[in-house]
Specification:
By secondary structure, the chain is an all-alpha fold. It contains eleven helices and two strands; from the N terminus they run H-H-H-E-E-H-H-H-H-H-H-H-H. Helix 1 packs across helix 3, helix 5 runs antiparallel to helix 11 and helix 6 runs antiparallel to helix 7. The longest helix is centred in the middle third of the chain and has 28 residues.
């Protein structure tokens, strides 16, 4: 029996090929061709294809070639990493999907914090202000950028709890899971000073219960950061 790692490796390579559009006509090579290409048995290939079918990335019918499913039709927050283009490659369609992710994350952040200005009791606002200050410190002192991101999502969770929005808390969890799926591509491009600035803006707005500043200025600052990230992940066509 061939090692389970072979199945996972072939699954990952095929998944990447589907995501990058390497099968433009939607038809994968035959099991025999793939077994020869990878130097494994057809049993191993079938196991990898079963995993892809479980993710709904391919369709399989007896007597027919296995076909890929358009990424846009099966895309979820959890598998958003599939739409990342190759490094430096301009891809308007994929950029638009990534824009959707960052816009949703930005809107949830601003909406929750602004709602806290109106609805959260003082003790919760104090917790949120402390979380903003901790985010500022993380961005100022820590070299590990992943710590900044964890603190940002923690701030969002605290805000969802403060205004009693369990649905938003679930969405924050999904947004975070999606982020870690492509974090290796994003983390190197996060800018500490910019994160410090918006964290302190949120800190002061929460202390003053100033939801208007959050909806205007914080939203604009976060959008500017998102555009920078998008330009690295999926450059706009020249």
């Amino acid at each position: 029996m061939e090692h389970k790692g072979l199945v996972e490796r072939i699954e990952a390579e095929l998944e990447q090929g589907i995501a990058l559009g390497r099968y433009p006509r939607g038809s994968l090579p035959s099991e025999h061709e793939m077994a020869r290409r990878y130097g494994v048995s057809r049993t191993t290939i079938r196991a990898a294809l079963q995993r892809l079918a479980a993710k709904r990335l391919i369709t399989r019918h007896p007597g027919r070639r296995t076909r890929t499913v358009a990424v846009g039709e099966v895309l979820t927050l959890e598998n958003l990493k599939l739409v990342l283009p190759e490094e430096g490659r301009a891809d308007p369609a994929r950029r638009k999907l990534l824009e959707g992710y960052f816009a949703l994350k930005r809107e949830i952040t601003v909406d929750l914090l602004a709602a806290c200005c109106q609805l959260a009791p003082k003790e919760d606002l104090d917790l949120l202000s402390s979380a903003c200050f901790l985010l500022r410190d993380e961005a100022h002192w820590e070299l590990d950028r992943s710590g900044w991101v964890r603190q940002e999502f923690e701030l969002m969770r605290l805000a969802a709890h403060a205004v009693d929005r369990p649905g938003h808390a679930l969405l924050v969890q999904s947004l975070e899971q999606a982020f870690w799926g492509f974090s290796e591509r994003v983390l190197p491009h996060l800018q500490g000073p910019a994160i410090e600035e918006w964290a302190m803006l949120a800190f002061h707005a929460l202390l003053e219960r100033d939801g208007t500043t959050l909806r205007r200025e914080l939203s604009a600052r976060l959008m500017a950061l998102d555009v920078q990230l998008l330009d690295h992940l999926a450059p706009a066509p020249e």
